[in-house]
Amino acid sequence: MLIAVGIACFAGIGCGGASRASSDSATTGSTTTTTASTPTATLPQPETRNDPDLDSDTYPGEPDNDNNHVFGHVADTTDRQAAVELLGRYFAAATTDNGAAACGLMYSSMSEAMAEDYGSLAGSPYMRGSTCAAVMSGLFKHLHARLINERATLKVAEVRVRGKYASVRMGFGAAPAKFYIELQSERGRWRLDRIIPTEQAIYVE
Please, what are the domains in the chain? Predict the structure, then answer.
């Protein structure tokens, strides 16, 4: 989670928790070449051929999708509703600078690491604090005006699930739904596993 890399947006910064299924590099032999994130909200289509470099026919540099399981399956009504409600609660906490409430919606290991990872982060004085609640409240205050608009215009386009992970594709206002956030199930409930939406597609492998 490198928030300092792109703390400029909830709809325009691409950072957050580590994703078990985000991929932005293509590997051939022992050489790895990093590629830019896919500039589209459309999910990659299944492969039409087998290619030796293991990247997508449609999106070079993205993982091969021959097995058609990269994005898991479309969430059922229960999981979709739970994801929508979770995001609604999170944005409500964000727009009221309620860091404690936001931390309560995170996957436990993530909330426990917030203060240690970001509480004394150089260059981000608004995130300094000794608790997850203090760190998140500082972040929310810094992005307050933007968050107000995003909460009012948030739309969830798609929720996909594989095992205990979920990838949520969302948008704000009339713009294309091209942002993603990752969830993880903990004790039977969906929890946030990323605190800021990213334009990098999140794969559920």
Answer: 3-19+72-192 (3.10.450)
| Residues 38, 23 contacting (CB under 8 angstroms) | no
β partners of residue 143: none
**Contact yes or no for 143/102 (Cβ under 8 A):** no
Q: Is the pTM of this model over 0.85?
A: no
φ, ψ dihedrals at 79, nearest 5°: -70, -40
Per-residue model confidence as pLDDT tens digits over 92-146: 999 999 999 999 999 999 999 888 888 776 557 788 888 999 999 999 999 999 9
3-state secondary structure the chain: CCHHHCCCCCCCCCCCCCCCCECCEEEECCEEEECCCCCCCCCCCCCCCCCCCCECCCCCCCECCCCCCCECEECCHHHHHHHHHHHHHHHHHHHCCCHHHHHCCECHHHHHHHHHHHCCCCCCHHHCCCCHHHHHHHHHHHCHHHHHHHHHHEEEEEEEEECCEEEEEEEECCCCCCEEEEEEEECCEEEECCCCCECCCECEC
Which phi and psi (to 5°) does residue 121 adopt?
-65, 120
Whole-number pLDDT of residue 167: 93
Instruction: Pick out the chain residues at pLDDT < 70.
Output: 1-71, 121-123, 204-205
